[in-house]
Every structure is written in structure tokens, then in C-alpha cells.
Amino acid sequence: MDHHKSNKFTWKVVNFTKLKTKKKHYSTVFTLAGYNWRIVIYPKGNKVDCLSMYLDVCDSNTLPLGWSIDANFNLAVVNQINDNESIMHDTAAAHFHAGACTQGYTSFMPLATLNDPDGGYIVNDALVIEAEIVVSTNPQLHDQDNEMLITEDNCMINEDMMGNEICFDEMATALLAKLEDDKVSVDVRFSDFVEIKSNNYVDVGVFKVPANLESIANQFLARHPDIGTGNSVDYVNNITFIVLCSTLKSMDTTSSNKITETLILKWMDAIRAALHFGFKVDFLKNHLKSVTQAYLAKSTRNSRENKELQAMLTELSNKRKDLDLFTVRCADKDKKVNTELRKICEAEAAKFPGETYSYFSN
User: Residue 328: enclosing H or E segment and its boundaries?
Assistant: First the structure.
């Protein structure tokens, strides 16, 4: 029998309409069910015309390696005039872990409904939010391929995109822009690449690489013998080359259904580091852009085909109070599904028929 711990937290957001609407806002840290949490909101939406709201595990970087929390939780916006009109979303069997410590709803409720002066959700410029969390102390197995929760940072596959593709251009453009923005980083360090710590090195050209990267390094130098390092390399250049090879190996071996936005940005950071130290690898930036477009096409295509996620979408849709807005957005689907950007992404996806985005498959 499962054992559970349950509590409720109420957050009164005062001066709600005066918040800096383009930024996310956090509640105070609160302790429920033995863990520290906070609520995250986007008053004007996380790239959608809806209030976006998530539940975040605080101080996740201080938790033990391999930590996870199995929880059921609900988030609610309280109607301060008629409690029966309060809007609540329930989430069953959420699996919080280091790769998904912030989970919730990108499209919690339409902004038109939220901001209705007679709606009862904002009274005296205050919004009232409630969170209830039930944590199971029994570990459960989770199929990472079928996680149905939406994380804050990876909202590429969310309830809006699964039901229609109005958001596709916006989401795709945002991710592709991150690849071009040198200020966007996931703070990659050399220590993130475990191969660097190897004790077994072999010579590949002028470089010394871990033995498990020998094959990748040989393929890379065979295709690109002049990458700008000359006949000798120093310690930093050698480490940078190892990071490049590790990145190529990751592209070569990571299944396409395991790709995430964070991983793509990690790959880009490695390529940027190589360019910074004088490596002539602009072609890898072009390859990664192609990979990203393929990822966008495949991930959204897969989510449309997933019947379980479609069932979830139907359930969420039925809970929405503003069905008129939802209907209008869905009716617009046929007009926007075949956008030029989607056509480009689908064309790039066709270049990667296999299970990975290997640089050497082209």
C-alpha cells in the first residue's frame, strides 16, 4: 500500500497587474509533504496567450545524486466571487527528477478569462493561487518516453502543440534563435564530459583522446583533416577536441526520442567553445541547426501520433472554462499547420531516417 504525505499552500499575488509581465514570478518557498517547493507563474504566458503555471522543486541542485519525487499535485486559480468557478488542473503520477524539476501547465487558463473584470479571478488587483501536493513514499518505475507532464523549459511538446500547431512557428523560432544567441548557455564545463577523466588515451593525429573516442576522432579527422590547430596542440586545444568528439559521439548514439532542448544547447556550447579556441568547425553549427529542425519536426509529429497524450489533451480541453477560445484556436489549425518553417523542419527530418542525429550519417 502506498503511503502519502499531503498539504496545501495558498499564494495571494498582490498587485498582480503591476508585475513585469514578460518575466516569470515565484512564490515564497514553502514546505509540503517533506520537500521545499515554489510556484512559478508567467502572468502573460510562457509564449502562449494563457496564464502559465508550474510547480518547482527548490534547491534541486542540493538534493542527492539520482533523486526523484513521485507526486500527485493540483494547481488552482481561485475564483474569489464564486468558488465553484475556480479553475484547477490535477496532475497524477508526476515524476520530478534532476531533468524535470519544474513541471506544470504552459496553458493553464486563457488570459481573456483571467483578466475579465467581472470574472472574479482578479479582485482588488490580487490573484489567489492554491497548490496541493501528495507525495508517494513508494518508488515507481517511469517510462521516460511517455512522460506526460510539461516542463517549464521544454514546452516544445505541450498540450497546445499536441492538439494543434498554432504554437509551432513560435516555439521553433524561439529554439532556433537560441542557437544563434551567444548569450544563451547551459553552463557547460569540461567536467561534464566524463571521457575527459579517462586514464586510457590513444594518439589520433596530433591529439591524444580517450580510447572510447578513438573511432569518432578518426572519422572526424578523416572528413576534416584541417580544423585549424596546426601540427601541434596545447593542453586546452586537446581537451577542446575531446569535448568535440564527445559531442559527436553523443549525437551518434543518443536516440532521437531522448533528445531535449537542454541537450541541443549543450552540444551548441561545445561547438562554441571549439570556435572560441580557433577550431574551424562552423560546419558543425550548420549540422546542429539541421538536427534541431529535425528534432522539432519529429517531436511534434510523434506527440500527435501518441494516443495516450491525445486522450490527455481531450481531458484537459474539457476542463477549460473558455471553450470558445479553444475552439477558435483549433479551427485555425489547418491554416497554420503547413507553415514554411514546418516544411523546412520536415525536410531536415527526412535527412535523419535513423534513430540518432549522427553527424556521420550525412
Answer: helix 323-331
Distances (CA, A) of 360 to 175, 180, 221, 239: 24, 23, 12, 22
C-alpha cell at 90: 490535477
Say which residue, 100 or 107, is predicted with more confidence.
107
Q: What confidence tens digit (pLDDT) does each residue in 150-190 have?
A: 444 444 333 333 333 434 666 677 777 777 776 655 555 55
Strands 25-26 and 30-32: unpaired
Q: 42 vs 36, 88, 133, 288, CA distance in Å?
A: 20, 17, 21, 30
Distance in angstroms between the alpha carbons of the first and the last residue of the chain: 52
- In angstroms, the Cα distances linking 252 to 106, 147, 262, 355, 362 are 32, 24, 17, 9, 11
pTM of the full structure: 0.47
Residue 94: helix, strand or coil by DSSP?
strand
What's the residue count for the chain?
362
**Cell for 68?**
526523484
Burial 274-305 (b: 16+ CB within 10 A, else e): bbebebebeebbebbbbbbbbbbbbbbeebbe
Report d(CA 23, CA 63) in Å as an integer.
Answer: 27
| pLDDT > 90 fraction of the chain, expressed in percent and rounded | 24
Residues 6 or more apart whose CB falls under 8 angstroms from that of 223 comprise 360
The 10s digit of each residue's pLDDT in 292-330 is 888 888 776 654 444 445 555 555 555 554 555 555 555
C-alpha 3/C-alpha 93 separation (Å) is 14
Report the candidate in 23, 72, 58, 61 with the shortest Cα–Cα distance to residue 44.
23
